[in-house]
Design a protein that fits this description.
Layout lengths: L1 E5 L6 H12 L2 E4 H11 L2 H11 L6 H12 L8 E4 L5 H14 L5 E6 L2 H9 L1 E3 L6 E3 L26 H15 L1 H8 L3 E5 L4 H15 L1 H93 L1
Parallel strand pairs: 1-3, 1-4, 2-3, 4-7
Antiparallel strand pairs: 5-6
Helix pairs in contact: 1-9, 2-3, 4-5, 6-7
The protein binds adenosine monophosphate (AMP).
């Protein structure tokens, strides 16, 4: 199963991706998560991405494409994946299509989680995260019992640097300008499906699963069956085709040889006949000569006898 989750920041696609990987046992690939981990680990890549991330801008395509290329070729991505936060613009989508074409595994579905802008603003600016468990609170929709503290551990909740109002506005603008055109891109490919991203998480998840069951599961089963059948029959078919071709060639060569031999035989017979005819002609000529000689002899004898009687 190969899915792209589309949606503005705060649409809840990350939450849904986590539920989907549990249910379908596939990998979640979130470029945002990878970039944040690199930032935490203090790597060169993390440092390069941080400024753009904090300002709510997109990280450069070459950095993100490098991450994706590396991640998609890892063994755990072979069984399928959900891309969350990637692609973010048309060039990224085109690069992804090219990568998938090289792997012979095109995307099957682009799922848009659709949420209104005002809801997105509150979801993002109100989001607070428990550092150890990753539990997500929202000061508007799901506030912790004690403001700013995790209900379980009491630890101070984290407010992402790019969840402040200014960065959120910028992120939503960037989404509208750069990422929203992806909707038309995947629509044109016939791969786009949309779910409303409001209501309970469970409800949204059910709607997403219904779409996947209807769109991908039958297709994926049919594709894997066809692939298995092709894999099984290809060598056999190829061998059979080779044998048939070899047999045809041999038959043609044999027919050519037979025709050549027959031609030779006819030519030899004709030559023999001509030779025989020549011999017969010679014999006849010799006989005629002999007869002529004998005739002359008889004539001579008659003349001699006649002279004597005179
Ligand atoms: P997210 O957690 O998906 O909202 O991503 C957080 C930030 O990471 C974004 O605002 C971007 O700065 C950066 N980012 C994540 N994914 C991409 C991407 N595909 N292309 C460029 N920047 C990205």
């Amino acid at each position: 199963m190969r899915i792209v989750l589309l949606g503005a920041p705060g649409s809840g696609k990350g939450t849904q991706a986590k539920l989907l990987i549990e249910k379908f046992k596939i990998s979640q690939i979130s470029t945002g998560d990878i970039l944040r981990e690199e930032g935490k680990a203090g790597t060169e890549l993390g440092r390069r991405a941080k400024a753009a991330m904090d300002a709510g801008e997109l990280v450069s395509d070459d950095v993100v494409l490098g991450i994706i290329q590396n991640r998609l070729t890892r063994p755990d991505a072979k069984g399928g994946f959900i891309l969350d936060g990637f692609p973010r613009n048309i060039p990224q989508a085109q690069a992804l299509d090219a990568m998938m074409a090289r792997l012979g595994k095109p995307l099957q579905l682009a799922l848009l989680v659709d949420v209104d802008r005002e809801v997105l603003m509150k979801r993002l600016t109100g989001r607070r995260i428990a550092p150890s468990s990753g539990t997500i609170y929202n000061i508007y929709f799901k506030p912790p019992r004690v403001p700013g503290r995790d209900d379980e551990t009491g630890e101070v909740l984290h407010h992402r640097a790019d969840d402040n109002e200014e960065a959120v506005r910028r992120r939503l603008e960037v989404y509208e300008h750069q990422s929203a055109p992806l909707v038309s891109y995947y629509k044109a490919q016939g791969k786009l499906r949309t779910v409303r991203g409001v209501g309970s998480i469970g409800e949204i998840f059910k709607n997403i699963c219904d779409i996947i069951e209807a769109q991908i599961r039958p297709l994926a089963v049919a594709m894997s069956r066809a692939e298995a059948a092709r894999a099984q029959s290809t060598p056999a078919r190829r061998a059979e085709a080779l044998l048939v071709a070899a047999a045809k060639k041999a038959k043609k060569a044999a027919a050519k040889k037979v025709a050549k031999m027959a031609k030779k035989r006819v030519a030899k017979k004709a030559k023999k006949k001509v030779a025989k005819k020549k011999v017969t002609k010679k014999k006849v000529a010799k006989k005629a000569k002999k007869a002529k000689k004998a005739k002359k002899k008889v004539a001579r004898k008659i003349r001699k006898k006649a002279r004597k009687t005179k």
